[in-house]
């Protein structure tokens, strides 16, 4: 998958997390469904140990109340393609 496709998907998935934060009452209930789904999506976007660690972080971030504002998918993309240059060229 292209790195820019991953960025677009990551921004979309982060926006889903933000939407649940802004809907009073329903927002925290939707996190029960979104937390495991976001962890699964993270493992599909990023393979290996880094993807598994990011999935755990995504799950915890979405499961905890008021933590939905952290853009986990975008931060993982930045880590993978900007901050960790030796892994930048691998196709995962």
Mean pLDDT: 86
Helix-strand pattern, N to C?
Answer: HHHH
- Radius of gyration in whole Å, from Cα? 13 Å
Major β-sheet profile: none
Tell me the overall shape: elongated
Count of discrete structural domains: 1
Number of strands: 0
Q: Could you list the spans in which at least 5 consecutive residues all have pLDDT below 50? A: none
Taken as a percent bin, the fraction of beta residues is: under 5%
Structural class: mainly alpha
- Cα distance, first to last residue? 8 Å
- Bin the helical content: over 70%
Total helices: the number is 4
Polypeptide structure, described:
This protein has four helices and no strands. By secondary structure, it is mainly α. The protein has one domain (3-83). The protein is elongated and about 45 Å long.
């Amino acid at each position: 998958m292209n790195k820019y496709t991953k960025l677009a998907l990551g921004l979309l998935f982060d926006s889903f997390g933000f939407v649940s934060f802004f809907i009073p009452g329903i927002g925290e209930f939707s996190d029960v469904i979104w937390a495991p789904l976001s962890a699964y999506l993270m493992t599909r976007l990023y393979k290996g140990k880094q993807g598994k660690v990011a999935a755990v972080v995504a799950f915890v971030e979405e499961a905890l109340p008021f933590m939905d504002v952290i853009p986990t998918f975008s931060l993982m993309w930045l880590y993978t393609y900007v901050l960790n240059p030796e892994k930048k060229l691998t196709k995962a």
